[in-house]
Amino acid sequence: MHNPDSGPSRGPNPVAETLKSIITVISVAFAVATLFTAAKPIGLFSGEFSAKLAEAVKAQETPDAQWPTATPRPKPPIGIVIGHWGDDHDPGAVCSDGLTELSINQEVATLLQQRLIAEGFDVDLLKEFDDRLAGYQALALISIHADSCTYINDAATGFKVAESNFNPRPERTARMVACLRNRYAQATGLGEHLSITADMTKYHAFDEINEETPAVIIEIGFMNLDRQLLTQHQDVIANGIADGILCYTRNESITTDQ
Q1: DSSP letter at 159?
Q2: CB 3.0 to 4.6 Å from 157: which of 21, 119, 199, 225, for a disulfide?
Q3: Where are the beta strands (DSSP E) in 75-156?
Q4: What is the mean pLDDT of the chain?
Q5: How far does Cα 104 stand from its chain's mean position?
């Protein structure tokens, strides 16, 4: 029989069901978190794993960079021709007492080489007709000779410096000649003898070397009146030539004071 005082019948309350589900999820999550904390040390990773990770990070922060080693570029050398060295056809001047031009040239060239090496240059000692002269490329080339030991007159003293008549780089070689004349006169006290010959201006090596190589020939003195300087003070001669070459390579000023 129907009871008039009773209300209509109702289904489950949606809001209540939702709240019940949320509470259940939170409870389960709390329980799982409690178990995980009890089983593991604080932190996401184990201590051993954390230490390894820290080392890897540190290695990335300070990498050991491996840079390629630059290949050094070769320095252009300075060539020194020892006048008459290895030339069987023309051994150079020979004095009556046995003094030879070659012996003087060799001594001066060796001392010059030592001085230039000490200044940081690479130096080639070349024979008169050295095979290396063909196309020779260098910072500079100088051929060393001494003049006659025969008495000519009282004016046969002093030095000579000459360049090629057909020099393709006249401005560079002219400066080298000027530097040598100036510095050699200052070092040795010799004056310049102006008897430049065709054998000097048409010196064979001028036509053999690379056209980019400035080259000169020097007669360092007469083996008669300048004999004492040539035989007893070869170091002074070598330093005078070296100073001239350094004047050229370092672009130093050329003074007229002697």
Answers
A1: B
A2: 225
A3: 78-82, 123-126, 140-147
A4: 82
A5: 32
Strand partners, 145: 219
How many Å apart are CA 216 and CA 161, to the nearest integer? Answer: 7
Beta-bridge mates of residue 78:
123, 140
**Cβ(164)–Cβ(238) under 8 Å?**
no
pLDDT tens, position by position, 7-26:
444 455 555 555 565 555 45
H or E element: which one contains 220? strand 215-222
Per DSSP bridges, beta strands 160-162 and 215-222 are antiparallel
Copy the structure tokens of residue 9: 């019948």
Sheet harboring 78-82: ordered strands across? 123-126, 78-82, 140-147, 215-222, 160-162
pLDDT digits (tens, 9 = 90+) for 95-140: 999 999 999 999 999 999 999 999 999 999 999 999 999 999 999 9
Q: For residue 143, what are the contacts with CB-CB under 8 A and spacing of at least 6? A: 80, 81, 83, 203, 205, 215, 216, 217, 218
Question: Which residues does residue 94 pair with via DSSP β-bridges, in sequence order?
Answer: 100
Q: How many CA atoms lie within 13 A of 133 on its CB side?
A: 20
Distances in Å between the alpha carbon of 113 and those of 81, 142, 167, 185? 11, 11, 25, 20
Q: Are 156 and 187 in contact (CB under 8 A)?
A: no
Q: Which residues pair with 219 in a beta bridge?
A: 145, 160
Tokens of 211: 């056209």
Check if the beta carbon of residue 105 is closer than 8 Å to that of residue 85: yes
Largest CA distance in the chain: 167
**Eight-state DSSP code of residue 114:** H
CA 214 to CA 167: how far, in whole Å? Answer: 8
